[in-house]
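FORM 12-B: Structure-to-Sequence Request
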């Protein structure tokens, strides 16, 4: 059984334990703190990129990798038909405790359910693809879950800046495929890969899979918001 390290951190935070640190061990040698409060932020704390994404959500929305459900809750409170999908059992419990009405516990790449008008991947949720090949598979799976005229909304980052000063070795493969591992209260998650994709590579892969890409917003720090639709 997978160790639900992130879910435990979210559960503790909801229960009032704000002192423990959620750490992220990275493939490039750094250990970073992941602020748990970011998963619980209020709409007024959403960055501009996320506010734009929220405004563009349409129809039946599937919030993928919903975490603690802040985006789902915002859309639900606006009266939208929104479902949160999350693989972490404890994160799902957190969302239900926060009042989210439609929660599905599942691995997105194995999920077969309704069709949706908007597939939403916030906080670099598209990164769950893990690799460039994984992104192709994710886009193929998204095709099976979208209604005609549906859309993908997601943010990602070009992390080429990590390698500019020579302090971090550039990997042999695509530089945006990063290996991570969560650590919390002495437990570690199973290591996993997360994808950060530059815009040119995204457009190239999307076109080959039958999608058109619109870059809607860039924040000046190599992060961007994208919208994608199927060509046919």
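FORM 12-B RESPONSE
SEQUENCE OUT:
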């Amino acid at each position: 059984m997978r160790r639900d390290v992130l879910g435990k951190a979210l559960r503790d935070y909801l229960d009032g334990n704000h002192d423990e640190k959620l750490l992220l061990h990275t493939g490039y040698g750094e250990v970073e703190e992941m602020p748990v409060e970011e998963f619980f932020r209020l709409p007024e704390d959403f960055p501009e990129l996320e506010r734009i994404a929220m405004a563009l959500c349409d129809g039946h929305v599937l919030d993928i990798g919903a975490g603690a459900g802040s985006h789902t809750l915002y859309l639900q409170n606006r009266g939208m038909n929104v479902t949160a999908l999350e693989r972490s059992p404890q994160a799902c419990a957190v969302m239900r405790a926060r009042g989210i009405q439609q929660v599905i516990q599942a691995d997105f790449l194995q999920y077969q359910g309704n069709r949706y008008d908007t597939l939403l991947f916030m906080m670099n949720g598209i990164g769950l693809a893990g690799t460039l090949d994984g992104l192709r598979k994710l886009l193929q799976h998204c095709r099976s879950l979208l209604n005609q005229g549906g859309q993908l909304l997601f943010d990602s980052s070009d992390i080429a800046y990590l390698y500019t000063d020579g302090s971090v070795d550039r990997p042999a493969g695509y530089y945006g495929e990063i290996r991570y591992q969560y650590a919390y209260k002495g437990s570690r998650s199973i290591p996993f890969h997360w994808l950060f994709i530059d815009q040119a590579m995204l457009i190239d892969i999307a076109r080959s899979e039958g999608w058109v890409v619109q870059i809607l917003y860039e924040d000046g720090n190599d992060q961007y918001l994208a919208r994608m639709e199927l060509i046919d």
